[in-house]
């Protein structure tokens, strides 16, 4: 018990503070999205945040060795769940993503984000530089990546597929395998893009086409992005004021409580508000990356970078997408967008990162 | 741990961190562009999304008769229109609309026609006079009919339109060439402007001032709140000098003869108490989109209902013109009232035979001036051609208002033509001939005038030589000018006109007023439309069997003869005999005017 208490003391509390500020702003925006109401979103999200924070601390207290030991099992179980939704999951929002757990819908693809990172960390942490030069050594991790990505793509959930790829790639990158592989894969991917194009759903194709020229069809598929840019731009430097965003409150802005919540924030708080929020995200990401850098254990290092990079992808893709810089792929803004699974998965990942922080000896110089 | 790998890890992690930082800087840069550099553009777009401006059309002023009987008012009606800048695909929109409201082929064609003629910012009318059910349906599906609007507007309605068609006129949608005047009202769908009659002449005071409404709408295009509201100011009401009862009775009398016109005027003030051109037409048809069928019916009708015969019809005045010929001879001192002239029934000049109208063999015999007017003896006037120049007659005619518009409140009034020697020289390069003067003495030849000019002349002859400007609207100021003529000469002319109806030799003796307190005077006229040739005359043919080749019938009159109050002009198109068709109407019109207004 005392040991547990000491561990809690070791948690990077300033970083948790940053997360709470971000989540607090998010709940404020959910309150605004409901026209100054706690319901239906803000209160529910607050509860989830509370549950999520407890889960985060519990996960953080679990010994890192437990994560190493159970990594492959966790991966296999999640992969099985993914296959399960492929066969049995019901269709929601046009995509097969959820298992109804009666209390909340489980999205195995969200779990997979963490499971894949754990499995890859587990695979690479024992490897030495000699092994790394052998191409056969890279076959198992590639299979580990391709299987879930293919399943998630089938659902279809481009956003999650992208997150899985980016997180996994970052681990491969920092594990030290030859950079030539990355160059090769990139070139192959570019060359095979036309083939991949034919596998995409019509709505996905439209999203990409509309991303390239959003004014192509402003009243239909391009509508989201056009309206989002109008909302952001009309927020100007200081914003229209809390609860006063016209684009969001008059419903010109779609999905304002989920994927487009940053737009609503930008409309109401303007450029200065956006800079403040992005700064908070930078501090959070730096703090997370610092945990990885300071970790002496290779598993912790690899996992830390993987988790941090997937955090980064969330933030970057979401903000870039609402500004029309990337296609709309359905990635939420961490701790900000409404949605239970995303928030809880994020906090669990954060807990795993904290577990790395608590259970490995520090190198001494810390940001927090 | 493998030191090489650890070193690689540290290096590559820092590279990743650098890439992330760079990408975040990119995001911030793009936010700066959107929110700081280009914010004006997006602010405008955001306002365009949520703020809609509407003009509120003012209520058009009422048009009432002098007893406040309403002739034209505004009623509620619904219209649907769209803003083309907000519509992606117009054919698709039209198809969608067809699911909710009935749009026939003509409605559809009209939409596409507007697209060609209207500017980008003007609303395109989908349909006018929508039923409540149709409006509700459109309102219900408004969120999928982007760019479509409905409005409850005030539209003109004419009560009892036919008899008043040419007085009141009508309003209709603004046309392209009128647009520069009312640029603010361009954006108001359903805006109507006066096209004819009083509606056109007094459009500026009837129209009122539009109000404006600024509302905030949500994405489903429901109005959330009103941001600004400025009330419209209704137009001024107009009171006409017309008496509805008199107008209706006169119109009824005229319609028995299919086509004609009649006006009754106060000889002192110029106030028009009746102003009817028959047949009239349903002016309400023009307020909304006129169908091709209706337009064809009206424009091809041989009785020409769309023409205001009182101000736009040009006719030879015929015998009515004789008063002015007589007056110019008297003023010139060419004749005296006692002088008698022999009428053998014709007058021969240079081998040409000018016939007197009379059916009596041997003509009228010896007639003096008063007899000549009463019996309308042509020969008496033919012979004046020896003593008068055409320019003498023209001068007198012009002093009585011929050759120029009367100036009443109706646009496009015609001025007519009073020929002079100089006119002929300029137009045909030829000298004026005696034969032509002879024709002019009986109001034929090149002489052309409108019935309103005859009425004005009649008033001046009987009110002591005051040329009044006819007025349809009560508030139009009275206007007149004095024609300096010898009052005794006017008295002689009046005596002649008195005898036309009250002396057994008078052409309109049968149409006399039997009311001793209200005797009437006047002059008839029957004018040829087609010359009857000598050959036809020998065969005994003096009448054409085809309606449109028959003579026109006129009667200009006044009453009471002892102290003239009202003057009238009656025109019956192809009515054959002024004395038989036009004079009875004139008598009834004057007696009715006395009964109603006296």
How would you summarize what this structure contains?
The complex is a heterodimer of chains A (368) and B (598). Chain A has 368 residues and is mostly helical.
Question: What does it look like?
Answer:
The complex is a heterodimer of chains A (368) and B (598). Chain A has 368 residues and is mainly α. Chain A has one domain (2-359). Chain A has helices at 2-10, 13-33, 42-61, 64-87, 108-125, 129-132, 139-154, 158-175, 179-199, 202-212, 223-234, 246-249, 261-294, 298-322, 340-359; strands at residues 90-92, 95-100, 105-106. The longest helix of chain A has 34 residues, at 261-294. Chain B has two domains: 52-239, Penicillin-binding protein 2a (Domain 2) (Alpha-Beta Complex); 244-289 and 313-597, DD-peptidase/beta-lactamase superfamily (Beta-lactamase, 3-Layer(aba) Sandwich), CATH 3.40.710. Chain B is built from 21 helices and 21 strands. In chain B, strands 2, 3, 4, 5 and 10 form a five-stranded mixed β-sheet that branches. Chain B has a five-stranded antiparallel β-sheet with strand order 12-11-21-20-19, with helices on both faces. In chain B, strand 14 (346-349) and strand 15 form a beta hairpin. The longest helix of chain B has 35 residues, at 3-37. The chains are: A mainly alpha (368), B alpha+beta (598). The interface between A and B is large, with 50 and 42 residues.
């Amino acid at each position: 018990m005392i040991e547990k208490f000491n561990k809690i003391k070791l948690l990077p509390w300033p970083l948790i503070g940053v997360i709470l500020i971000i989540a607090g702003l998010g709940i404020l925006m959910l309150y605004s999205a409901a026209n100054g109401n706690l319901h239906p979103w803000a209160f529910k999200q607050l509860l989830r945040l509370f549950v999520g924070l407890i889960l985060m601390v519990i996960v953080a207290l679990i010994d890192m060795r437990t994560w190493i030991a159970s990594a492959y099992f966790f991966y296999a179980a999640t992969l099985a769940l993914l296959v399960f939704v492929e066969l049995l999951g019901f269709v929601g929002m046009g995509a097969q993503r959820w298992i109804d757990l009666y209390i909340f819908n489980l999205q195995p693809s969200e779990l997979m984000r963490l499971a894949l990172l754990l499995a890859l960390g587990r695979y690479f942490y024992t490897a030495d530089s000699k092994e790394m030069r052998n191409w056969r050594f890279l076959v198992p991790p590639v299979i580990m990546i391709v299987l879930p990505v293919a399943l998630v793509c089938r659902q279809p959930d481009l956003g999650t597929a992208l997150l899985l790829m980016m997180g996994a790639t970052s681990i491969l990158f920092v594990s030290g395998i030859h950079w030539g592989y990355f160059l090769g894969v990139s070139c192959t991917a570019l060359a095979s893009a036309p083939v991949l194009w034919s596998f995409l759903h019509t709505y996905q194709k439209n999203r990409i086409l509309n991303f390239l020229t959003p004014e192509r069809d402003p009243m239909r598929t391009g509508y989201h992005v056009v309206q989002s840019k109008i909302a952001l731009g009309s927020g100007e430097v200081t914003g229209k004021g809390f609860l006063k965003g016209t684009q969001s409150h008059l419903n010109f802005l779609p999905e304002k409580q989920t994927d487009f919540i940053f737009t609503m924030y930008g409309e109401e708080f303007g450029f200065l508000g956006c800079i403040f929020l992005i700064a908070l995200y930078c501090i959070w990401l730096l703090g997370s990356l610092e945990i990885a850098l300071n970790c002496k254990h290779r598993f912790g290092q690899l996992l830390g970078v993987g988790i941090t990079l997937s955090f980064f992808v969330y933030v970057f893709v979401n903000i870039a997408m609402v500004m029309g810089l990337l296609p709309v792929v359905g990635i939420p803004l961490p701790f900000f967008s409404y949605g239970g699974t995303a928030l809880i998965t994020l906090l669990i990942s954060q807990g795993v990162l904290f577990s790395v922080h608590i259970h490995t000896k520090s190198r001494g110089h810390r940001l927090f | 741990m493998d030191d090489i790998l650890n070193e690689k890890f540290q290096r590559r992690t820092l590279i990743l961190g650098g890439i992330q930082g760079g990408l975040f800087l990119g995001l911030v840069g793009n936010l700066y562009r959107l929110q700081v550099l280009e914010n004006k553009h997006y602010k405008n777009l955001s306002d365009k999304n949520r703020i809609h401006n509407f003009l509120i059309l003012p209520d058009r002023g009422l048009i009432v008769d002098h007893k406040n009987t309403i002739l034209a008012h505004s009623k509620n009606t619904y219209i649907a229109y769209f803003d083309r800048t907000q519509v992606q695909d117009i054919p698709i929109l039209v198809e969608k609309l067809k699911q909710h409201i009935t749009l026939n082929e003509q409605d559809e064609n009209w939409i596409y026609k507007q697209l060609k003629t209207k500017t980008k910012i003007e609303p395109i009318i989908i349909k006018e006079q929508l039923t409540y059910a149709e409006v509700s349906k459109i309102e219900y599906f408004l969120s999928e009919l982007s760019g479509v609007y409905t409005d409850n507007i005030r539209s003109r309605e004419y009560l009892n339109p036919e008899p008043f068609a040419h007085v009141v006129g009508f309003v209709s949608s603004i046309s392209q060439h009128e647009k520069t005047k009312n640029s603010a009202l361009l954006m108001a769908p359903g805006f109507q402007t006066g096209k004819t009659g009083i509606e056109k002449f007094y459009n500026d005071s009837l129209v009122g001032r539009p109000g404006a409404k600024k509302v905030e709408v949500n994405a489903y295009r429901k109005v959330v709140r009103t941001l600004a509201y400025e009330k419209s100011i209704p137009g001024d009401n107009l009171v006409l000098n017309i008496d509805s009862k008199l107008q209706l009775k006169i119109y009824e009398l005229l319609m028995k003869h299919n086509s004609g016109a009649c006006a009754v005027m106060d000889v002192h003030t110029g106030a028009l108490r009746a102003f009817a051109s028959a047949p009239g037409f349903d002016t309400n048809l023009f307020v909304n989109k006129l169908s091709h069928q209706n337009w064809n019916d009206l424009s091809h009708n041989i009785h020409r209902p769309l023409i205001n015969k009182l101000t736009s019809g040009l006719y030879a005045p015929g015998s009515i013109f004789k008063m002015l010929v007589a007056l110019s001879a008297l003023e010139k001192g060419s004749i005296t009232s006692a002088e008698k002239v022999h009428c053998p029934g014709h007058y021969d000049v240079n081998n040409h035979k000018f016939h007197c109208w009379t059916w009596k063999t041997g003509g009228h015999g010896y007639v003096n001036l008063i007899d000549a007017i009463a019996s309308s003896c042509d020969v008496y006037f033919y012979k004046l051609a020896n003593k008068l120049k055409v320019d003498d007659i023209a001068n007198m005619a012009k002093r009585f208002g011929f050759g120029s518009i009367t100036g009443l409140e109706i646009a496009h009034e015609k001025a007519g033509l009073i020929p002079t020697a100089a006119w002929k020289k300029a137009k045909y390069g030829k000298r004026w001939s005696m034969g032509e003067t002879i024709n002019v003495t009986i109001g034929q030849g090149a002489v052309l005038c409108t019935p309103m000019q005859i009425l004005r002349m009649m008033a001046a002859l009987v009110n002591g030589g005051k040329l009044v400007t006819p007025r349809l609207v009560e508030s139009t100021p009275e206007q007149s000018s004095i024609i300096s003529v010898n009052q005794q000469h006017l008295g002689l002319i009046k005596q002649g006109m008195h005898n036309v109806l009250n002396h057994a030799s008078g052409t309109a003796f049968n149409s006399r007023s039997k009311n001793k307190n209200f005797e009437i005077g006047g002059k008839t006229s029957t004018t040829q439309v087609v010359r009857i040739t000598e050959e036809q005359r020998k065969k005994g043919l003096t009448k054409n069997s085809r309606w449109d080749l028959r003579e026109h019938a006129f009667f200009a009159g006044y009453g009471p003869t002892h102290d003239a109050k009202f003057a009238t002009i009656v025109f019956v198109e192809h009515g054959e005999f002024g004395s038989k068709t036009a004079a009875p109407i004139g008598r009834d019109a004057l007696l009715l005017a006395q009964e109603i207004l006296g």
